[in-house]
Amino acid sequence: MKILVINSGSSSLKYTLFEMAHEKVLFSGTVDRIGLSGTTHEFRVGLNGEDETRLVDVTDHGEALDEILSTLTNGPLDSLDELPAVAHRVGHGGKYKEAVPVNSDVVREIRRMTPMIPLHHPAMIKEIEECQIRMPDALHVAVFDTSFHRTIPDYAAIYGLPYRYFAERGYRKTGFHGHSHQYVSGKVSEFMQQNIRDLKIISCHLGNGASVTAIDGGRSVDTTLGMTAVEGLIMGTRSGDVDPGLMPIIMKEDSLSPDQTIDMLYRESGLLGISGLSRDMREVEAAALKGNDRATLALSAFCHKARRSIGSMLMVLGGCDALIFTGGIGNNSSTVRFKILEGTAKLGFVMDDAKNNGQERTTPESPVLDISHPESGIRIFVVRTFEELMMARECLNVLKIVREQKQ
Ligand code: ADP
């Protein structure tokens, strides 16, 4: 049984083709810079076969899909009929708490949630619609970044606004990066050979988007991202927490419309906004190393926010057994990991500096790296995330349910 997972960004389409019997990746790739100059299609057999990259003439997500599907049918697939189901990553599920087959109501709900995650949803909706046209016989399943956080209790999810926003409009913390937090916490429980029901875990997904989640017995109980994809940590171009009282003041002072304000919070803030250089942590770190003051400030602010959030989650959980770093930054930056945990031995975090800085890296085959010192009260792990696998599993479950219902 093969399942295709598609993850669309505003100018990219990532895809992974799975053989579900052994949860094996057959083929994966990314079409990047869609609608911009120099659009590329990078792909490989499996997850870490040799990369092949070609320049492609693709101006929108529909054409990007044509490129991907023809690559698949000229490679690992004989025909698209071999795909019974396609998983589509969707940022915000709104009223949908779990993965569902796509129908017009689901698309309407995803569209209704667009203001909550404006950089991603328009491309995701377009991608789903284009896919349905090209694969009319496959089951299309929407898998939501928010699902894993449906267990967050009301008292942690509610905002201190008038109650009607919670009760009537459903405005509450919904969180994101659910597939990543769920995957890495599961992997760590396997690694520790302990049932996840017996573990308290703090998971830090640090990438272009970033969030810290408290996981108690395998259930998300709190997370830093909110109803929108802005709350919490400083991110690549998103602000994270800002004093809410400051926003209307800035809007008035600079005569910003709501849309301009959204643009500022989502595209011009975060690492990019503070450093004035880049949203890319590698570039920020390199500039900080050369003594650039704003890059140093951006790096320190990023780490401080993450550190503060870990402290909050430690109290939420009443202690924890394991701390996880994942996402592009969490998985790769020993500097960020060091700065976040520096001087926290009294709280139970003692990193093994040699392991943190060492040559050993996570790989797809060996995604968990233990970087804790033997004296650390809390185990510290670096984990290479694999969100697509969780999406493929959810999609397969929905496919099974749909097939059972048909019988
Ligand atoms: P996304 O949230 O878009 O999936 P990723 O999880 O791929 O993003 O993370 C992208 C971030 O990871 C970028 O800020 C990038 O600079 C950072 N990153 C990747 N490799 C390294 C590295 N070796 N050192 C520091 N940061 C890194």
From TrEMBL:
Active site: 145
UniProt keywords, alphabetically: ATP-binding, Cytoplasm, Kinase, Magnesium, Metal-binding, Nucleotide-binding, Transferase
Binding positions (substrate): 89
The record's free-text note on cofactor binding: Mg(2+). Can also accept Mn(2+).
The keyword Cytoplasm is annotated on this UniProt entry: yes
Binding residues annotated for Mg(2+), in chain numbering: 7, 387
GO biological process, one term: acetyl-CoA biosynthetic process
GO molecular function per UniProt: acetate kinase activity; ATP binding; magnesium ion binding
Cofactor: Mg(2+); Mn(2+)
Site feature: Transition state stabilizer: 177, 238
Broad class of where this protein is predominantly found: cytoplasm
Localization: Cytoplasm
InterPro entries named in the record: Ac/propionate_kinase (IPR004372), Aliphatic_acid_kin_short-chain (IPR000890), Aliphatic_acid_kinase_CS (IPR023865), ATPase_NBD (IPR043129)
Catalytic activity annotation: acetate + ATP = acetyl phosphate + ADP
EC number: 2.7.2.1
Enzyme class: transferase
Alphabetical list of SUPFAM superfamilies matching this protein: Actin-like ATPase domain
Metabolic or biological pathway: Metabolic intermediate biosynthesis; acetyl-CoA biosynthesis; acetyl-CoA from acetate: step 1/2
Entry superkingdom: Bacteria
Residues engaged in binding ATP: 14, 205-209, 280-282
A Gene Ontology term for the protein's cellular component: cytoplasm
Job of this protein: Catalyzes the formation of acetyl phosphate from acetate and ATP. Can also catalyze the reverse reaction.
NCBIfam families xrefs: ackA
Family named by the database record: Belongs to the acetokinase family.
Subunit description: Homodimer.
Protein name as it appears in the record: Acetate kinase
Record organism: Desulfomonile tiedjei
